[in-house]
Amino acid sequence: MTSQPAARTAAPSPTTVGSASASQPADDRPVALITGGSGDIGAAAIERLLLDGYRIAATYHRNADRAAALQRRLDPNGDRLTFYRLDLVPRNVREAAARTDGGAADDQDDDVEAVVAAAVSRFGRLDALVHCAAIIDTTPLWQATAAQIDTVLHAGITAPLLLVRAAASLTTQPSLVSEDPPHETRRGSLRSVVVVTSVAERFIGPDSAAYHASKAALAAITRYLACHLAPGIRVNAVAPGAIDSGPNAADPHWPRRMLSARIPAARPGTPADVADAIAYLVSPHAAYVTGHTLYVDGGLSASLTPPPARARSATADERNASR
Ligand SMILES: NC(=O)c1ccc[n+]([C@@H]2O[C@H](COP(=O)([O-])OP(=O)(O)OC[C@H]3O[C@@H](n4cnc5c(N)ncnc54)[C@H](OP(=O)(O)O)[C@@H]3O)[C@@H](O)[C@H]2O)c1
């Protein structure tokens, strides 16, 4: 697949896998945009939301083969699923990182707003945004350059902010993004946002400081946007724990048995466990849930939470002194 610059106009044409035709005839089925659709959790979310009746615009970054394989398996005609290439990191940030690494920056000029516009143009509406993509980074702080840190923070914080803003403003009445309630939404406009954070937003794990910071920021962004986009758009987060996916699944040394012994559910999670939580949060079953982070971790974080300090019993001397 060749790289193409994504246009910045109202009807951009980012690189796609599958059907990329212009607006389709009227179709009442809801539409979800899923970033990181070539990843394990994103792919599970695609499968699950297709089952729930959604049409899906999904993104991949480097793994065009996985996107193409999913397209062939799930929707070979491209009626209900279209992939777009997206890099959450803009070219200037990539180039700065490449200069310090001594590598070469990919010349694609991706743009999160362009992908949102392309999805809306392709399907004619956008009901849900599911942000799964992230740079999963484990660089120790003392080895990370400032440019590398910026890259992780941009992908984890700035990009989702731009994504949500683009999705909300492209699909809703202008009043929705203004300061003044009451907000209005129109049919086919964005109703629900789910971002994938991590238990790393609260607990310290093997990932980098920048990754932890980005997930904690995304949890704060979730609460902020839930308030500012209410009542038209619900915004929630799913925080996976130790999931047998992504870099973990690819690592033969990932300590599955040790984790199974520590996780109350006695196993690592699966991408489908996370996808089920995403499907719930975008659905009308979660109509009264917003600003919430749903931990999908088999009880791992509950087991890590220290019990409240027990009130110290007064010593005999203290009891005597108080008489
Ligand atoms: N696995 C876990 O245990 C775990 C735990 C907590 C939270 N999470 C979160 O769950 C989400 C999905 O993770 P996963 O386990 O499914 O990992 P994964 O299989 O490695 O998926 C990562 C996804 O992010 C995309 N991506 C990476 N860099 C990108 C960039 N610069 N621009 C755009 N997209 C980019 C990848 O695209 P390509 O593959 O096409 O390059 C891929 O689709 C992430 O937000 C992660 O932080 C995972």
Would you kindly provide a written description of the structure presented here, covering whatever features stand out?
The protein has 323 residues and is α/β, with parallel strands linked by helices. It has a single domain (16-322), classed as Rossmann fold (3-Layer(aba) Sandwich), CATH 3.40.50. Helix content is 40%, strand content 12%. It has an 8-stranded mixed beta sheet with strand order 1-4-3-2-5-6-7-8, sandwiched between helices. It is globular. The N and C termini lie far apart (83 Å). NADP nicotinamide-adenine-dinucleotide phosphate binds at residues 36, 38-42, 60-63, 86-89, 132-136, 155, 196, 198, 240, 242-243, 245-248.
Termini Cα gap? 83 Å
CATH architecture: 3-Layer(aba) Sandwich
Low-confidence stretches are 1-13, 19-24, 174-184
Give a list of the ligands.
NADP nicotinamide-adenine-dinucleotide phosphate
Round the Cα radius of gyration to an integer and report it.
Answer: 22 Å
The count of domains is 1
Secondary-structure-based class equals alpha/beta
Please trace the helix and strand order, writing H or E for each element.
Answer: EEHEHEHHEHEHEHHHEHH
By CATH, the superfamily comes out as: NAD(P)-binding Rossmann-like Domain
The largest sheet, given as strand count, sense and whether it forms a barrel, is:
8 strands, mixed
